[in-house]
Amino acid sequence: MTTLSATGARRTSPLIVLLHTITFRQARQFVPLVIGIAATVGYRGGTTTVVALVVGVTVLSLVTALITWWRFSYTDGPSSVVVTRGLLSRSERTVPNDRIRGVEVEAPALHRVFGLVRVRIDAAAGGLTRKDHDEELVVDGVTRAEGDRLRISVLTHRSTGAPVADHAEAPEPAEVEFARFDNRWLLYAPLVGSYLALPLAAAGALYRVIDDLRNSLLPQLAGPFLRDPRSLGLLAAVALVLLLVGSVVGAALVNWGFRLVRRGGSLIAVRGLITRRHTELEIDRIRGATVTAGLGMRLVAAARTNALVTGLGDAGRRGQLLPLGPRSEAWRLARRLVEDPGPLTTHPPAARRRRLTRALFPGIVVTVAGLIATAADGWWELLVAGPALVAMGVPAGLGRYAALGHATGPRSFAVRSGWLVQEHALLQRRAVVGWRVRQTLFQRRAGLATVVACVGAGSGGYAAVDLGAGDIAAFTAAASESWAATLSRPAS
């Protein structure tokens, strides 16, 4: 159980020592050193050597896990959260409660075996690198009850600034359900690239294993089987089925039991089959929402919804409000958080010409190259491919233009762009901290410009692509505060 010292600092559960020993969490950093020593001294096989090596690595893992647990402590006070760690080099990190953006409680599979959870406190880390994310406030190895107490304590201190008694259970407000995942929505998974990547990664790992065993396995697969068109077709069909099933299984592992509720001033998302995650976001920090859909998802009227939260680290995952679902459900959730400014305004005809030109240009280049190759050497393949690319470019260019749009309302505005992956962003006017206008040489000749709303949430900037240069001042003034009216029209 969690211990409390005289200074108010708490320690994690001693069971985390056993968990980290099993997973070699701390001992992994010594692997290069052990390999170097083994290479210097020399390795002699035999049962005794193997047993000694296993015992030595296990003891090393146990000692490092024990030292890490002994020198780690945390304190959640009325004004800040403090995490102290390190043996020779002591590190103490303090984060004021008003800088905390959210709390995530996750329970990986092995943690659940030991009845433990990991608490991740998001401290305005939206612009941090991956290395900096490793330095976020993470309390690994507390009981479920202590994880819930820490979450409630941190969020209560953050919102009120008032102390919470260590042993008193603060009553949680009633829940209002915003969304619940329907398992039938898993059928959308093969249309999402990130879910298709999971079985592809597994296939790559399997290929490496087979490649290592090529002497015993590959000769059996080679020969007439791989030269038979029917066998190749069957193999391709099996691979396709495994890819589709793998994407559905991957989506289920990540999103199983997904539920989004509002509790007081927070949105709470719970998900996961093997690793159970409990993510809490402060509603007052939400500045907008995005509804995203790839080309395949749009064909079946599916989409996903993300919240744009100021200072949120790993926003793509932690800000996810609906991982996958019908487009109507995604929009219902987005409009519940941000006011919809209304129908989008189409961009000028010059934007359509520009989209078509960019889509047709590769096909035209290939066609010209095909004419030259045919006349010179009789190589006609490029001449066939060129017109095909041109024909494909027409719907692609028109689709890219149709995706463009913007709208403004009394308290919010919207921008939309993208064709293969279309993103429709709804943003509050108060979210804008600045505007950036980009104009290439070709845009300037066409009287167009790209206007980027700079916000401290999500990706940091959301663009109205190929907006009419004469409409910039009116759009920026209507989409933010009055200071934006001073934004001048780009020079033509």
Word description of this protein:
The protein has helices spanning 15-23, 31-41, 47-70, 109-113, 130-133, 144-160, 193-212, 214-221, 224-227, 229-255, 295-299, 315-318, 327-337, 349-377, 381-403, 441-446, 472-479; strands spanning 73-76, 80-85, 91-96, 102-107, 116-122, 137-143, 175-180, 259-263, 266-271, 276-282, 286-294, 302-309, 320-326, 405-408, 412-417, 421-428, 432-438, 448-455, 461-468. With 492 residues, it is an alpha+beta fold. Among the domains are: 15-172, no CATH class; 349-486, no CATH class. The protein has a seven-stranded antiparallel sheet. Strands 13-12-11-16-15-14 form a six-stranded antiparallel sheet, sandwiched between helices. Strand 1 and strand 2 form a beta hairpin. Helix 1 crosses helix 3 (47-70) and helix 7 (193-212) crosses helix 10 (229-255). Mean pLDDT is 82; it is low at 125-135 and 162-168.
